[in-house]
């Protein structure tokens, strides 16, 4: 659909009339970064702010959250009808806000004039002031997506697109019989498209804040104007006032913000992939990918493969990350299911519950096993070093596979023409930096895992296990292959 837009020059007046208080701070419609790039709008301090001193306060009723959407629906029959028709979407905090966003976009769209649905709401104007061209990966062209081959973002983006398509299909199926939805969205002249749902998701994903004091997650007008800075550079934080529930943006406890300084927050502490995925950019000073998440799969020849996957109910992957002391670490619950087998003591059975349903049960050495307890049970087993070695080998093989995929696709990436209208220079540069940071992290992870593997191979338990295998005339071969 076509979208009605209001420029950021309207935001100061909107803030004033809706109770947003600015304390010696102002909204700037154009901020220039250190590298000369246009960062769009932002916030600027108009006087010195001592640590903890507030820049602005936003009333709780302006926070766009699931709770606020429900409140708006009490006075808006059409919004209420939408929420009730799509419970699978309206019950979740994120998709409840997405429903509100597309509803407001529809009400203000030039394609939907004369529908008679309009109801005054300060958040309606706020939605019109949000940027409608957001450079997130969900809006990459096909050629730009091809540049992601070998990065952890490639799989994450594929899964995200599938998830968004499933949500949009659910919305259409749930609202097809609502008169105004049929007329404005789904008829031959209807205006709602999958691109609109992606836009609502991008608005939420790039602006939603996880508020402190159990205040939940929501979009906070004006606070969401603050641009990102790295963990050693940002100068402001947000909090919730105990008396009023208002969201406050205040100077960091260890910072004094000078007159004329840009007011910045840290969007998140995830890795480079998460920054590009949720915000569409990488920090100017990023020197590490910080973390990657790689998928893992149980070997197809494992006879317990289906039972393991169904019972574990864990994300089938491994998170590789750099901790606060700059140590390379990895964590995965799923890998422990992949590295133990029936001969080790793992088993499954199907039993009938009291209500007649069939339930899958896991056993470890004939004792019933809870899904989340396998790792701790293995750590107490006499052969724990053997299981750890198997896990390390599996993770290392996955790291090597991902690194090779990145390396092999590097020539293709470098040969892509920046003159193509389907590849934007900013996207090309962002993906190039992501590729460099991830391949450096994968190389470091491989070396760390190699050292862990060597240490486990020196374990007496592993040595005894291998020796017994040789005595039984089992294939000797390479030691890591034997135990994995």
UniProtKB/TrEMBL annotation:
SUPFAM superfamilies referenced in this protein's UniProt entry, alphabetically:
SET domain
GO MF annotation terms: protein-lysine N-methyltransferase activity
Cellular component GO terms held in the UniProt record: nucleus
Domain of life, source organism: Eukaryota
What the entry lists under InterPro entries is as follows:
SET_dom, SET_dom_sf, SETD3_SETD6_MTase
Start and end residues of each SET domain:
18-268
Coiled-coil annotation: which residues?
Answer: none
Q: Which PANTHER family match?
A: SET DOMAIN-CONTAINING PROTEIN 8, UNCHARACTERIZED PUTATIVE METHYLTRANSFERASE
Protein's name in the database: SET domain-containing protein
């Amino acid at each position: 659909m076509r979208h009605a837009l209001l420029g950021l020059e309207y935001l100061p007046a909107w803030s004033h009339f809706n109770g947003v208080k600015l304390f010696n701070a102002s909204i700037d419609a154009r901020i220039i970064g250190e590298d000369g790039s246009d960062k769009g709008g932002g916030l600027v301090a108009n006087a010195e702010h001592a640590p903890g001193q507030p820049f602005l306060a936003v009333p709780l009723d302006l926070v766009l959250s699931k709770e606020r959407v429900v409140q708006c629906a009490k006075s808006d029959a059409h919004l209420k009808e939408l929420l009730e028709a799509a419970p699978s979407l309206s019950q979740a905090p994120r998709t409840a806000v997405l429903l509100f966003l597309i509803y407001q976009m529809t009400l203000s769209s030039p394609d939907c004039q004369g529908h008679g649905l309009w109801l005054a709401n300060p958040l309606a104007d706020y939605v019109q002031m949000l940027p409608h061209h957001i450079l997130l990966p969900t809006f990459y062209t096909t050629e730009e997506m091809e540049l992601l081959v070998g990065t952890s973002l490639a799989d994450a983006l594929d899964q995200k697109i599938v998830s968004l398509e499933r949500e949009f299909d659910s919305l259409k199926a749930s609202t097809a019989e609502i008169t105004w939805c049929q007329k404005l969205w789904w008829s031959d002249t209807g205006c709602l498209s999958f691109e609109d749902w992606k836009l609502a998701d991008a608005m939420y994903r790039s602006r939603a804040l996880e508020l402190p004091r159990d205040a939940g997650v929501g979009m906070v007008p004006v606070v969401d104007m603050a641009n990102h800075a790295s963990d050693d550079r940002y100068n402001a934080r947000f909090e919730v006032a105990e008396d009023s529930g208002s969201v406050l943006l205040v100077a960091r406890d260890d910072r004094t913000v000078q007159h004329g300084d840009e007011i910045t927050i840290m969007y998140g502490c995830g890795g480079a992939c998460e920054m590009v995925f949720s915000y569409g950019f990488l920090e100017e000073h990023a020197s590490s990918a910080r973390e990657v998440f790689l998928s893992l799969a149980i070997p197809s020849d494992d006879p317990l493969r289906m039972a393991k996957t169904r019972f574990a109910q864990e994300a089938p992957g491994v998170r590789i990350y750099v901790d606060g002391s700059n140590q390379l670490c990895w964590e995965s619950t799923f890998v422990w299911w992949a590295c133990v087998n029936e001969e080790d003591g793992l088993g499954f059975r199907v039993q009938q519950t009291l209500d007649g349903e069939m339930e899958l049960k896991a056993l470890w050495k004939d004792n019933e096993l809870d899904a989340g307890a396998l790792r701790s049970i293995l750590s107490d087993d006499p052969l724990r070093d053997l299981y750890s070695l198997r896990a390390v080998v599996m993770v290392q093989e996955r790291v090597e596979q991902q690194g090779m995929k990145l390396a092999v696709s590097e020539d293709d990436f470098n040969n892509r023409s920046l003159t193509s209208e389907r590849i934007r220079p900013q996207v090309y540069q962002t993906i190039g930096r992501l590729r460099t940071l991830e391949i450096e992290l994968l190389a470091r992870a491989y070396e760390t895992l190699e050292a862990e593997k060597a240490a486990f191979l020196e374990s007496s338990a592993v040595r005894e296990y291998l020796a017994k295998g040789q005595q039984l005339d089992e294939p000797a071969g390479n030691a890591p292959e034997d135990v994995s």
